[in-house]
Sequence to fold (136 residues):
Amino acid sequence: MFGFFSSRSSNSQPSVSAADSLRSIPAINPGVTFKTDEDGRLVAHVPVARRKGFWGRFQKPVSIHRVRLDEIGKFVIERINGERTVQDLVNSFSKTYRVNGREAKLCMADFLKSLAQRNIISIGVVAGESASTGND
Fold:
């Protein structure tokens, strides 16, 4: 089971099953932009709000964090369109880079979790049987 969308504490949020995780839809967060640097690598420009508290008073209201992505990062970002599911990304990754399904799932789970932690993407979880059967 993935558990990459599950919470660390059982009290805060319900965990998400592996099947629900694969049906989830990643989307680029608003305000995040991408540019290609001189080396041809994709760079994410992520707006970050000022911290709260005393030290936050000395920061700009919004700063930009830059995250350089490698070839695989670029591959994944280019396929995130707000419609493709995690399973679609796994299938595409597996086919393009010729890795087995299990390895592709684990790599994709780790990478998407990293992107979410850096506020580059958000992941909408589609839960329940109606999502998989199309009987809405």
Residues 6-10, 130-136 have pLDDT under 50 and may be disordered. The helical segments are 18-23, 71-79, 86-97, 101-117, 129-133. Strands lie at 25-28, 33-36, 42-49, 62-69, 121-124.
